[in-house]
Design a protein that fits this description.
104 residues, mainly alpha, 3-stranded antiparallel beta sheet, 4 helices, 3 strands
């Protein structure tokens, strides 16, 4: 006589406590797009600060007329950067201009 077969229920694997781990299959292109989207979303929340300012923007920061700042740059009396024919001011340049004004 044969013995009856025992049926043993399988245990369900325990999920991690935070349920945040998943196994996902995707193409490299899909992963690249996800990364691009996340980087764009992060940058939209907090844009990096400007590296340079044109004459009008720098003049607004300094609270002086743009024509005055342009003239001082042409005469070499204030620090600035030149990119081809474009005149640009870094935040360091603007701070140096403010310090020079303070000491006079």
């Amino acid at each position: 006589m044969t013995q009856p077969t025992k049926i043993i229920p399988l245990k369900k694997p325990e999920a991690p406590a935070d349920d945040s781990r998943l196994l996902v299959t995707m193409s490299v292109a899909e992963l690249k797009q996800i990364v691009r989207d996340e980087v764009a979303a992060a940058l939209a929340k907090e844009r990096p600060s400007r590296l340079t300012f044109d004459t009008k923007q720098a003049a607004e920061i300094l609270n002086v007329p743009a024509t005055w700042l342009a003239m001082k740059a042409r005469e070499g009396q204030v620090p600035f950067k030149r990119f081809g024919h474009y005149v640009r001011f870094s935040m360091e340049d603007i701070q140096q201009i403010m310090e020079a004004v303070k000491t006079r």
